[in-house]
Cytochrome b5-like (Thrips palmi), 110 residues
Amino acid sequence: MTECDRVIPLDVVSLHDSPSDCWVVVFDRVYDITPMLHEHPGGMEILLENAGRDASLAFQGVGHSRAALAALRAFQVGVLPDAERIFSSARPGHLQIARQASSATLLYTP
């Protein structure tokens, strides 16, 4: 098991919500984005607004490219447990997403 395969529940992700320790979830994968806070083209504030929680809708909502998703992989520290996964597949680029909690449908097809 690699570090990227480490299972990290949302309650643990939620503890990492500050400028000195910033984690987010995007498409069921957990990322430590602390090192990129000051380099994000959209500004650090938007990242901190989503710190410690699932940022998938925010990430998709601004239309990040495949390149942005690929760049994010360098910061992956784990995955959500199966019971907490929202998306039908954790494989970016192959997601047909139905988010039941918000009754919104999000299709990710880069």
